[in-house]
Specification:
This protein is 83% helix and 0% strand. The chain is an all-alpha fold and 81 residues long. α1 (2-22) packs antiparallel against α3 (41-80). The chain crosses the membrane at residues 41-66. Keywords: Membrane, Transmembrane, Transmembrane helix.
């Protein structure tokens, strides 16, 4: 149970962080990209935001699948009994 709560919390955090990478805090995140990195800071911020959103969605999808599986298992156990 605690693992599922953590999974949902982390998913929500990643979605919010990824969204802020792409919207309101883009310039603040660009300032954190080290100058020695041979990539455009804007690209790094956008790419990391997209990855964070994808990971957050993946955690929610996995949670939904696990929850659906658990509900189906409980229903089948009730039917069998």
């Amino acid at each position: 149970m605690l693992r599922r709560i953590g999974q949902v919390a982390l998913g929500a955090f990643l979605l919010v962080a990824g969204t802020t990478h792409l919207t309101v805090a883009r310039h603040e995140f660009q300032a954190q990209v080290p100058p020695w990195l041979p990539l455009d800071p804007g690209f790094v911020v956008i790419a990391s935001g997209v990855v964070e959103i994808a990971l957050g969605l993946a955690l929610f999808i996995l949670w939904a699948l696990a929850t659906t599986h658990a509900v189906r298992t409980l229903r089948s156990l009730r039917t069998a009994a």
